[in-house]
């Protein structure tokens, strides 16, 4: 899935403006400035430089989840799902350690939605959405269990449609084979 750079820039700019909201850590202007700088770079079309700036912010303050989350979003929106998944999982670990439930929710949502974009990982996506829904049941101020459950239902429909499609294709192939086989005399 390709996302317009303006959408990426808008998302990162909004995230940069909200950077640190509700964080248990003291505000570090350099850290937040780097996130804003990354958003500006991405908005200007320099995605690689923006991601590098986010990596610098992560290196400067690895115990905060914000820049890791934005880095994961940047990778996912750019189509690098493996790097996105790795960073969302890192963000989740950091957010749990920091007891930052807002970023726990964002990271769990990111893991699930990234898995869902990887067709070979639909079972992982389903499990991640179930985990997200269970978490959201107890954290309604930062997460929606309904979203998780709706995604699980959508995945179940997709898997069932694929199963039926495979069966139908198999029956068609068998009929074509029988039609191509000469009849005995």
Question: What attributes does this structure have?
Answer:
185 residues; mainly alpha; 8 helices
Strand and helix map with partners:
Elements: H1 5-18, H2 29-43, H3 47-60, H4 66-77, H5 81-97, H6 101-116, H7 122-137, H8 145-180
Number of strands: 0
Low-pLDDT segments, ≥5 res: 19-28
The secondary-structure element order is HHHHHHHH
Q: Main β-sheet: number of strands, strand sense, barrel status?
A: none
| Count of helix runs | 8
Whole-angstrom Rg: 21 Å
Helix/strand/pairing category: mainly alpha
Multimerization state: single chain
What is the overall shape? elongated
What is the typical, i.e. mean, pLDDT? 86
Please report the distance between the alpha carbons of the first and last residues.
Answer: 55 Å
Residue fraction in strands:
under 5%
Helical proportion, percent range: over 70%
Task: Describe the structure in your own words.
With 185 residues, the protein is mainly α. Helix content is 76%, strand content 0%. It contains 8 helices and no strands. It has helices at residues 5-18, 29-43, 47-60, 66-77, 81-97, 101-116, 122-137, 145-180. α1 runs antiparallel to α2. It starts with a helix and ends in a 5-residue tail after the last helix. Mean pLDDT is 86; it is low at 19-28.
Q: What's this entry about, in short?
A:
Helices cover 76% and strands 0% of the residues. With 185 residues, it is an all-alpha fold.
